[in-house]
Inverse folding.
C-alpha cells in the first residue's frame, strides 16, 4: 500500500474517522467487555493509537470514539486519550437518544457523525476490532477497517499476546483476519500502527471511484 506522502494531490481527503474504544484505541484484546471491569493495563493506548490520532488531528480530520460499555467505565478507559477526541455518546445514560439502537444497527455510527457535524457519509471511515461495531459501520454505509490482533476476536491482554510464540500469534491473527473479511470489511490491519497506510489506500480507492 502507498504511504500518504505518495498519494496523488487529487486523492480526496477523508471526511471523518470513527474508532471503537475497547479493543481499538485502548484495552488491547477488549478484555473489559469480557471481564466486566478493567485494570490500569486496559486503559493503556494500543500500539499506534496515539500516533494515529495525532496524524488525523494534523490533517484536521474530525474523529470520535464509540463503545457500548457503561459510560462511567468507557470514560475511565478513555482517560489516556487526548481530550480533543470526544465520545459519541452522552456521559449519562438518561441522555442517550431514543433513536440509538444496539449494534449492529447503524444508528450509533450516524449519531456519532452528526455529533461531529459531518454533512455527508462519503469519505467516512470506521476502525474497530469488534465485529458487531464493524457490521454497524457497514450497515451505515461507511468504509470499515478491522483490527486483527488487538480486538475481541483474539481477546488477549498485551501480556498474554507477548507471551505467545510468533507462530501462535500468526495463527490467531490469521483466523481473526478471515473472520473480519468474512463480515465484508474493506481492509484489515494488525493494529493502529498500520492505520496511516491503510487510510492512504482508501483515499486511492476513492480516487478510482470505489464506493464502500
Amino acid at each position: 500500500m502507498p504511504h500518504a506522502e505518495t498519494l496523488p494531490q487529487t486523492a480526496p481527503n477523508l471526511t471523518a474517522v470513527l474508532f471503537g474504544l475497547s479493543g481499538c484505541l485502548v484495552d488491547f484484546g477488549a478484555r473489559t467487555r469480557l471481564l466486566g471491569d478493567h485494570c490500569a493495563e486496559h486503559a493503556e493506548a494500543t500500539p499506534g493509537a496515539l500516533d494515529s490520532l495525532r496524524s488525523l488531528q494534523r490533517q484536521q480530520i474530525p474523529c470520535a470514539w464509540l463503545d457500548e460499555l457503561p459510560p462511567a467505565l468507557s470514560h475511565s478507559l478513555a482517560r489516556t486519550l487526548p481530550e480533543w477526541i470526544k465520545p459519541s455518546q452522552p456521559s449519562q445514560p438518561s441522555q442517550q437518544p431514543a433513536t440509538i439502537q444496539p449494534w449492529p444497527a447503524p444508528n450509533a455510527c450516524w449519531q456519532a457523525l452528526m455529533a461531529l457535524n459531518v454533512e455527508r457519509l462519503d469519505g467516512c471511515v470506521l476502525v474497530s476490532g469488534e465485529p458487531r461495531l464493524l457490521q454497524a459501520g457497514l450497515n451505515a454505509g461507511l468504509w470499515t477497517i478491522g483490527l486483527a490482533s488487538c480486538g475481541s476476536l483474539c481477546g488477549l491482554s498485551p501480556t498474554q499476546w507477548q507471551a505467545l510464540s510468533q507462530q501462535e500469534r500468526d495463527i490467531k491473527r490469521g483466523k481473526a483476519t478471515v473472520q473480519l473479511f468474512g463480515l465484508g470489511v474493506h481492509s484489515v490491519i494488525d493494529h493502529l500502527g498500520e492505520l496511516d497506510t491503510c487510510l492512504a489506500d482508501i483515499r486511492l480507492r476513492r480516487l478510482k471511484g470505489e464506493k464502500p
